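Example record for the data management plan.
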Amino acid sequence: NGAAIDLVAVGAACRAVGAALVVDATQSLGAAPLSVGEVQPDFLVAACYKWLLGPYGTGLMFVAPAWRTARPLEESWLSREGAEDFAGLVNYADASQGGARRFDVGEKGIPTLPGAIAALRQIQAWGVPRIAATLAAINARIAEPLQALGFTVLPQALRTPHILGASLLSGAVGPVVTALRAQDIFISQRGQSLRFAPHLHVDDADVQRLVQALRT
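Corresponding structural encoding:
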């Protein structure tokens, strides 16, 4: 429903009881600021095909220094030390690659990597704080008329900048999704909430068309 999770507080609570913090940031990385220095996750992963704008089959993983010598759960010949030296592959190595690369599994998706790199460079050029501020403003323009139409949305201070959830007391949001789809307006349903997730291509005309469709 777009509710923000205070990962800094969650991380502190995990460390207080000796629990590892594993974060799946797929739904926010690239659209909302996130600092591994502040959150201090043990592991953080994200698929690139959502807010990182990358191709399917690509993803990112951060591994905290304390885990970079750990034994991986899955073994792959490419995660072995020296695997990039094909001439020496007959010299089997017991040691894993250094750093987080020891946790790689399967083959690398080399054909898709240029697309992922280009997408990450574009996000870096735009700047995640600017992306987040722009998306928060778009969602604010959607939230106000939604509330006037009887939908319940979280206060802006409690929600993420890039995802807006809206619910009805009746819980009947499915017909809304269907009616909007008939007008070529596509939003998602998550449980009993409508899920609005605009990106930078959404402009004021798009928002006005959405609001008009909701009113009718």
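Summary line stored alongside the record: The chain has two domains: 7-126, 128-215.
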